[in-house]
Structure formats: structure tokens, C-alpha cells
Amino acid sequence: MPQEPADPSSAPTGGFETRAIHAGRDFVSDTGAVTPPIWLTSTFEYGNPGGFDYTRSGNPNFRLLERALASVESAAHATVFASGVSAITAVVSTLKAGDVVVAEENIYGCTYRLFAQVFAKFGVSIVYLDFTDPASLEEIAGHRPALVWIESPTNPNLKVIDIAAVAAATHAAGSMLVVDNTFASSYLQRPLEHGADLSLLSTTKYTNGHSDALGGAVCTNDLAWRDRMIFAQKALGLQPSPMDCWLTLRGLKTEAVRMERHCANALRFATFLEAESGARFVRYPFLLSHPQHEIARRQMAGGSGIVTADFGRSLEDTLRFVESLRYFPKAESLGGIESLCCHPASMTHASVPREQREKVGITDSLVRFSVGIECVEDLIEDVRTALAL
Ligand SMILES: Cc1ncc(COP(=O)(O)O)c(C=O)c1O
Question: What is the pTM of this model?
Fold first, then answer.
């Protein structure tokens, strides 16, 4: 009979790779299986040792993934959700009418849309600031925010925000800091170590890494926040599927080696674009030319796998370039082993009004590359050919 996953106090210690692989391993007591099963059940008989009752409020596959994610995010607790957007919804559902959120202005398009088109109707308002401007830190307290919300690096401009500085200003204002850690990944950056209160992940991206499951997570050291997240998981029906949790846990086991390769490929790719493509600018956190390069070096262990470039072309030429790439299918997502390419203005950020989009630098000539783990010379040759067409 499946046992409740081991007590967190017996969770493995050691390096990231060791914890990612061994967290929760010691639970299938009577089969010897080294890989956990998938508990495809909606319902559990009352009185079971794990205390499970109904999968909307918990399932062994959730618990296994939650323990592993907490471990790799240096958090005491993690709660998993159906998607990154579900995780965002869970956090915002804790607010009430009249609350204000102060957020980085280059926030992910769907987060922007949730605030503008859903949460605004419930009386939650949002103020956008440019968190790369030190003056923004002085402004936080004046808004009396219930939450401060940043991403770092941001999507798609790859602005790097000083998490420790924003955390200090947020706490001085009596508020809580949420960091969307999706673009960095848990391997390269752990926001709670820099003072954040919540680290949010779309596990769909680098955690899973294989573009075959959706998921989200909220990691925290705060028990009250953990309880709020578990409540949101079941009360709002934001729970993931056991199958997706199983796939995500399998992906997490190779996150460290995948991220090493993503970082090496992306740095080489960005260096090529900067030197040879004629782009107006190339953004990558570990390029010396990145405006917040020093902060990136301080809070990230690598530059991650996303590279953004502005080729200074018309909308038609930019789309023609993107569509003629061979190894970069045009697609919304990122963080998988395969390279992908995105035109943010017409795809991920199409829901952001043009005026707001252009104000934060999401122009028609901007292209976002999710650099995969293929042979990087093939990727470079592909771009060289498409630019010459
Ligand atoms: C930074 C960021 N946060 C959250 C999300 C939402 O995640 P999901 O697509 O898993 O709902 C995304 C998706 O692209 C993202 O890029």
C-alpha cells in the first residue's frame, strides 16, 4: 500500500542536484519502485494513513512534487497548482476589495490581463513601477500596497530586478514581496534567499523542461501563506492533475544539467547576435552589455536560456524572419529542451494595450528566443541563414 511520503524532517540534504533527484524517494515501501506511481484517483477512502480524501484537496503526487520544489527553492513549503496562472490567481485571491498591488511594469502579459480584466472587477487595483529605477523603491510605501509583485528577469525584456533591495523596501512599507521566478528557474535563483516572501513558478517552463505538462507553484517559509495556498488550491479548484505533477517531478530531476546547457548555449547565442546580427540591441543577463549585469551576477548562478533582440526591422520583416527559422518554431512558451521563438507584441503580450506595450519596450521589432539544449552552432547557423533571406 502506498505510504504517505516521508516526513519533511527526513528530506534529503546536500546539493541542488541531489535534492532534486532524491526528495520523496523513500515512500513506496512495499514495491521497491525507484520511480513513484501516478495516483490517478479522484477519491480516497476515509481513514488512510496519508490523510487524503479527494484529489482537489490533495494527492500523493502533489505532495511529492511540493516537497521536492520546497527543497530546491530553499523554502519550508510549496503548494502546486494547475498552471502558473493558477498560482497567480491563488495568491491574488487572498486580497480584498480596496487592496493595492505595486508591480513591475514589464510584467508577464497574462498577469497584466488578470489584474486588468479580472481582479479589477473585485476592487483590487494595481500600480506599475519601473523597478530598475532606484526611485521606485522610495515610492512603494506611499501606495500602502498589500503586495509587491516583480519578475526577474522580466518577460520579455529581461530586466533584472535587485530582489534584496525591493524586499527591504517592501518590508519597510509593511508589505510582502512576491517574485515570479519562472524565467530564472530554481536552479539559478532562489528568491527567498534574497528576502522575498513568496517565490512563484510556472513549472510549465524550466522546472518541467519538456513542454509536456502545465503547472505552477508558490513557495514560502511562512506557514500562514502555506495555509492560504492550500485553501486556494481546493476552494478555487486550482489543483493540478496527478499526471502533470508526475511529469513535472521527473523534469525537475534533470533541471540542474538542463540549466547548465541552456546557460552555455544562450550565452554563446547572445554573443553571436551581439557581434554579427546587426541587431539594435541584444539582451541577456550575463552579457557585459546588459544594463543590470552586476545584479544578475550577484543573484543568479547563470543567465538562464532566454535571449531577446531588437533587429530594428518592420513588423512584416520581423515576422518573416521569425517564420523562416528552422530550429525555432514560433510558439508562446519557453524553457523546454527545444528552442522556440516568440514575437511578444503579437503573441505573449498581445493582451497588453499597444501604448503600455511600447512604453515598456515591447516593440514590433522585438524577438524573444528560448534557447534550447541543441547543438548551439546549428542554432546560430539557422539565425544567420534567416537573417540573410
Ligand atoms: C513569467 C511567467 N509567469 C507566469 C506564466 C504563466 O504560466 P502558465 O502558462 O503555466 O500558466 C508565464 C507563462 O509564460 C510566464 O512567462
Answer: 0.95
